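Reminder to self: tokens first, then the designed residues, so the page reads top to bottom the way the pipeline ran.
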């Protein structure tokens, strides 16, 4: 249809829009109400310890506080004293490097073990899974004690095997006496205790990869390496990202393994990580204000290191 303007020109009538406006989706508030009690409980449970840490970091503790005297409020003096110390930044650098190395090694070995679990027959898979579960379920103190016996400079089986293989220089070698070999032993222990979680988690993700897609890629000429990088890895990436994120958090805050190894005669000042550094400040030196300040710094450092992975997870979830 057309319409006539005052000039007499026939102008085509506007056509109705072919694209219908999509109705605005209403937000269902029920899920938010369902998770509200859990969120409130989590915030309440975190508010007290974090708030107490903040208050403690702004107070000075000494001998008088052991007899009931209130601690003196010093504001940010503890932060200034701690963060202007070279000892803290040496420990921070050491902890970050140690954390990233352990997390990467654990992730790589866990993925390789998961691929092995996927490839072996059922009976071998069951044996490997039981072995991984036993290693994972072993109490931490017992596990570290066994490893300390193995690396003992007098009766350790590691030195005995190395000497038998012709490395005479390892006779009576003290693995915990120098920082480099100390952290090598600590890495072996931490990776050994962490790999089962990564391997079993990644194996569970591998079971969800479509076999038809892998078969089609093989028929198209893709090698196993190409299938892994282009099909398997993108499929299991969400699980790998979460596992790697957890490993960074756990390895940055490692304490018990390092403390137990230090108790065997290791040089404490050269092998301190953030966890043992906080323990030494608080329990060893009675500097609870400084220990609380470093604890809050570790919390902030954990957020900084893990934020890129959290952001990627959020982007993948939105996609």
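Designed residues (319 positions):
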């Amino acid at each position: 249809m057309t319409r006539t303007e005052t000039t007499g020109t026939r102008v085509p009538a506007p056509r109705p829009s072919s694209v219908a406006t999509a109705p605005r989706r209403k937000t269902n508030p029920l899920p938010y109400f369902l998770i509200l009690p859990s969120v409130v409980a989590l915030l309440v449970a975190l508010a007290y310890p974090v708030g107490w840490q903040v208050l403690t970091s702004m107070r000075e503790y000494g001998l008088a506080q052991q007899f009931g005297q209130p601690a003196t409020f010093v504001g940010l003096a503890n932060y200034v004293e701690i963060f202007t110390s070279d000892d803290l930044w040496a420990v921070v650098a050491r902890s970050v490097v140690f954390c990233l190395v352990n997390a990467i090694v654990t992730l790589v070995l866990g993925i390789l073990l998961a691929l092995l679990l996927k490839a072996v027959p059922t009976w071998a898979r069951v044996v490997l899974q039981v072995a991984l579960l036993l290693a994972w379920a072993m109490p931490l103190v017992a596990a570290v004690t066994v490893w300390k016996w193995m690396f003992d400079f007098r009766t350790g089986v590691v030195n005995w095997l190395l000497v038998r293989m012709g490395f005479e220089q390892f006779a009576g070698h003290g693995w915990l006496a120098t920082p480099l070999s100390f952290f090598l032993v600590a890495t072996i222990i931490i990776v050994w205790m962490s790999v089962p979680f990564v391997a079993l988690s990644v194996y569970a993700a591998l079971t969800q990869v479509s076999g038809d897609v892998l078969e089609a890629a093989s028929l198209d000429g893709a090698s196993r390496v190409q299938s892994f990088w282009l099909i398997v890895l993108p499929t299991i990436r969400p699980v790998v990202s979460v596992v790697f994120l957890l490993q960074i958090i756990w390895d940055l805050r490692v304490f018990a393994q390092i403390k137990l190894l230090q108790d065997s005669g290791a040089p404490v000042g050269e092998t301190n990580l953030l966890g043992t550094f906080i323990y030494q400040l608080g329990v060893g030196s009675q500097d609870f204000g400084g220990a609380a300040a470093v604890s809050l710094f570790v919390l902030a450092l954990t957020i900084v290191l893990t934020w890129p992975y959290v952001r990627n997870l959020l982007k993948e979830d939105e996609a």
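DSSP finds 13 helices and four strands in the chain.
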